[in-house]
Amino acid sequence: MTGDLDGSPDAEPVPARCPPGSEGSEAGAVTVEAALGIGSLMAAFTLVLVGVSAVFVQLRCTDAATEAARLVARGDSERARQAVRALSPWEAELTVRRHEDHVSVVVAAAPAGGLVPELRAEARAVPEPGVDVPGGSG
Are 113 and 74 in contact (CB under 8 A)? Predict the structure, then answer.
């Protein structure tokens, strides 16, 4: 018995067809989505690492400024420069200012190759009696 298209049991199934022009239009869509997802994750991870790096640079600048202020207040400016070089990151700049009753020291550094704005820390100390502190008045 031969089947016909009226739904008789001997009829062969007709394969579903895509509309013309839509064949293969979604080919590679999962690959593109995965690439965009991985790229976004890498960008977010990089930003987190830069942020954590900036926090550590700020802490190191604060430590260097505190130590340098103590040393400058004792009259030992050269050791203050050495302490800043040892404690602070990436060629940090040291600025010493003498005020009427105290000395302020600023340590500034640009972390992450300049991706983050310059970070700075300031510390103040009262100079020892009789100590001549170099630096401009502020």
Answer: no
